[in-house]
Amino acid sequence: MSKTTKAVVKKQAKTKASTTKRTANKSVSTNFVYAFGKKTDGNATMRDLLGGKGANLAEMASIGLPVPPGFTISTEVCGYYYDNGKTYPASLSKSVLKAIKQIESQLGKSFGGRSNPLLVSVRSGARDSMPGMMDTILNLGLNDVTVEGLAEISGNSRFAWDCYRRFIQMYGDVVMGVQARSEEEEEPFHEILEKMKRKLKVETDSDLSTENLKALVDQYKSLIRKRTRSAFPQDVFEQLWGATSAVFSSWRNERAILYRQQYAIPAEWGTAVNIQAMVFGNAGDDSATGVAFTRDPANGEKVFYGEYLINAQGEDVVAGVRTPNAIAKLADELPQSYRDLEKVRNKLEKHFKDMQDFEFTIEGGRLFILQTRNGKRTGLAAVRIAVEMQRERLMSQETALLKIPAESIDSLLVPVFDPKALKAAPIIGKGLPAGPGAATGRIAFTAATAEAETRKGNKVVLCRNETSPDDLKGMLHSQGILTSRGGVSSHAALVARQLGKVCICGASEVVINYDKKTLTAGKVVLKEGDYISIDGSTGLIYKGMIESADSEVKRVLEGGLKANKSYTYELFQTVMSWADKHRTLNVRTNADTPAMAKQAVAFGAEGIGLCRTEHMFFDGERIDIMRQMILAADEVQRRSALKKLLPFQKKDFVGLFKAMEGRPVTIRLLDPPLHEFLPHDDVVRRQLAEKLGVPFDFVIDRIKALHEENPMLGCRGCRLGIIYPEITEMQARALFEAAAQVSKGKKAIKIKAEIMIPLVGFRAELADQLAIVHRVAAEVMKKHKVKIDYLVGTMIEVPRAAITADEIAHEADFFSFGTNDLTQTTLGLSRDDMGLFYDQYQSKEIYNQNPFASLDQTGVGKLVELAVERGRQTKPNIKLGICGEHAGDPMSIDFCHRTGLNYVSCSPPRVPIARLAAAQARLRNK
Ligand code: ADP
Ligand code: MG
Ligand code: MG
Questions:
Q1: 395-404 pLDDT, tens per residue?
Q2: Which of 231, 376, 405, 441 supports an S-S bond with 479, CB 3.0-4.6 Å?
Q3: Distance between start and end Cα atoms, the chain
């Protein structure tokens, strides 16, 4: 052990003494290091502790796959590291030393030794893979002495120096922070490398000679000295701990935080660190490195998919430094290795029973596997792989259902380019189809521009030579991503697949010039801001804007395409029928018009859970009558206006009842504050006064009288119907008249109407409105001599309603949780006014996710649970549903299932997602 190492270890031991107690309280195990190789401590089930990468390395080692030996420092150490001022448990350095010794003896190499030096990689690895978000360092253990040793033992000094320059580059970047200082600046190491390549007029890094590489090493070292005022460390243990700390620290870098936000990964999980003996894909022309998928992750087809580079190291393939070859070509270049790889492909799929994304390296013709994980895939691929693997008996129906992220169903339903418009559009280039779908937008050359343009309301396609993890935010904001470099496992492709973004990568004829801000494809030159269209299913790039059209599934559902003509539809139908078999939660829709209702029924909606009647008043001449009603000076005037509104409202209800063909329909009475219907500018106000034959001043006075400081908490909801009972009366009459009409005659439909009173907080409020509804119902039924099946209930959307649900349940036949308002009122936070602070909240990880998008289960959810419990105390059979935005969110749906609701009601396009999510909730909570 060198002097520096001893110093490091001692320093750690000292800081530990004061903190061990705290860790002991948390009952953290004393074992922090888990080996894999000849002796393997871990397995695939230990992802929480070992991270996904570490757990699977252990698993692969124990089923006999060729994995270079190494060990994993557990995620508990990451927790310790952050809890204790970035220090380590006292016993760690000893365990690490022991684990290094084990590798040394397995391979007959020595770490820091000159004659046969052991080099290692130091790799991050969280519980869920976060590709490219955290850091990895390769070739660690090289210094000015060991590099000579490596050159001698390999008989290949070019190779040794290539490893050394790669190591300094990575270490300098990741550990010592020598990086580009702005988005426009090139990576400094990369820049030096490019400069040298230009000077020597060589194409790729593999053309550099030993002497060139030695010079490069010198230049790299002086760059580090210039930037950091310290030297690149020669002590291998100092290197090891520096790299380990850098990997732990990368858990909290900006892009990792953003990524966790996107995928709701808790900050507490932490990353593990994997330290593994290096194998070398850059050891000559019978060496290679690559990434492969057991199936196509873009469209799900069962084909071997992936790419590799001869004489290169891992990062090269992903970073898009050289454009890699498609995996099929390996069969010609290194036939035996290709056959070995095919065997591994099969073994991995059979063992892990899911599509695998794995990394391999071939060193002198010998194959090594460096990583495997369940491959990230597009929504379309997720569905196809699950369905086909179930048919191949690799998984059960239940597992297949759980394997499909519910949101993925959406990618079978998103619009495609309109076939006619597509034929007419000029093709300007082609790349690799990496994320299926159609995207049209203005060209943005930087992530920052993409974000800024989107905030202005423009749609953009992010066009870059290649993307890096720092572009994540810009990618999120784009309709699609186009890169000129990099293959199907490049960063751009990977992220696009995961985000469900349309993506084309490696479009090598496309030249992007960041300085001039142009994109050139053949003779066509496009500028930033010009329209471009990309088809991520075919890889074709088009100039200009292209109209979109309905997806195949939608065309089949609406009768425009035969079912047997579309494999996508077959996949959709298969998954939906499985889902319906397994779910207990009903799925309804929020729809205000017959067209919306019909669309939802085609998607499988089993009823309407929320019809917002106010939306019916904004149309054409109705708005004027509505305004007349609002401006009325007394009840007589108001009743006369309402009388004119009634036929419109009745017609709407007839349409809805017909569209729903006997399924339950929940109609909510008028909810918003009245001044929402009144005009804001004086010209329109004057016109209104003329139209209604009242003085302009009268209009102004009424508007003033209706003004509220905080309309969200003012005269709205049932309060309106209580002060203007004639409104409730009109709405109830329109509804029952419509029901009476539809339930008679030749095409009679059996009506199931559910009338919903909004914003109730007191039992007496509901009782007041109920009396009107029942009276009108009785009158209409008597008049038309029909019996109409109806329920009256309320929304639970203020905390008081939830708290007093036992009282309110005496009056209500059903509760529907209006979780938008319930979230607003519980958090004391208006959804429309989050903008000012939400970004900060996100970066500080205060909200795990947007509480308006996914139900705040620990807060708002408690109120829902309380209301369910108290409601059922009073009325065991009370019907329970949810109609807030959350009803379309899979995590919230899981909550609704667990809480025992009867149905969720979401917007029509989310109905298929909700069906799948409901089935998953049942399977998960069985
Ligand atoms: P990420 O999690 O970002 O994929 P990895 O830890 O997998 O990062 O490492 C990045 C690349 O380095 C991989 O492509 C892998 O092939 C390569 N690599 C990692 N460890 C080794 C090793 N021991 N020998 C050779 N290559 C390695
Ligand atoms: Mg990897
Ligand atoms: Mg509401």
A1: 999 999 999 9
A2: 441
A3: 55
The 3-state DSSP class for residue 516 equals coil
Task: Give every CB contact of residue 203 below 8 A, 6+ residues apart in sequence.
Answer: 197
Residues 6+ apart with CB under 8 A from 205: 162, 193, 197, 321, 322
Identify whether the C-beta of residue 485 lies closer than 8 Å to the C-beta of residue 506: yes
Q: Residue 141 CA: which ligand is closest?
A: 1
pTM of the complete model beyond 0.85: no
896 is catalytic: no
Q: Tell me the two tokens of residue 757.
A: 């009173």
pLDDT bracket for residue 8 (50, 70, 90): very low
Which of 123, 275, 289 has most ligand 1 atoms within 8 Å of its beta carbon, as the pocket-test mutant?
123
Does the annotation count 491 as an active-site position? yes
Name residues whose C-beta falls within 8 Å of residue 216's C-beta, 6 or more positions apart in sequence. Answer: 165, 192, 193, 196, 208
Output the ligand 1 site: residues, CB below 6 A.
68, 121, 123-124, 131-132, 136, 138, 276-279, 289, 314-315, 359, 361, 370-371
How high is the pLDDT of residue 320? 62
Length of the chain: 926
CA distances from 873 to 233, 763, 808, 860 (A): 70, 16, 11, 20
Q: Specify whether the CB–CB gap between 860 and 885 falls below 8 A.
A: no
CB 128, CB 119: distance < 8 Å: no
In sequence order, which residues have a C-beta less than 8 Å from that of residue 595 and are 6 or more positions away? 659
Contacts of 792 (CB under 8 A, 6+ apart): 754, 755, 756, 757, 770, 773, 774, 811, 812, 813
Q: Which atom of ligand 1 is nearest to the CA of 134?
A: 3
